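Researcher: Next entry: F420-dependent enzyme (Pseudonocardia dioxanivorans).
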Amino acid sequence: MSDDDRRARVAASPVARLATLRADGTPRLVPVTFVLLDGLLWSAVDDVKPKSGRRLARLDDVDRDPRAALLVDHYEDDWDRLWWVRVDGTAEIRDAPACRPALDALAAKYPRYRDAPPPGPVLVLTPERWAGWTAR
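Model: Predicted structure:
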């Protein structure tokens, strides 16, 4: 799978799984909405899905250890069509007002965000390594 193909598959995917590291070093894996913009991966805390608050455990993980990964995959019963892309990188947390282009891109990608824009904070993943596999 070429670099361009990996990026195109990630950009077109509606959901990914974000992996961060808990304080004890074990992985935390959560599904996230996201957008690929200017070579970075952006995900914002929203008010659409039920949560226990805006300060999510994944944000504390990133503050403590910025290593993170994003996994996008595709499954079908026809296993010849399976694929996955993983992006390993360094994450940081930013305030939403400083991320207007990313929030606009999220609203363009996800219709629910048009009516209820994510208030943030915003998690930004800077890719360091792209890996992928496809059955074809």
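Model: Note for the record: The first helix runs from residue 3 to 12.
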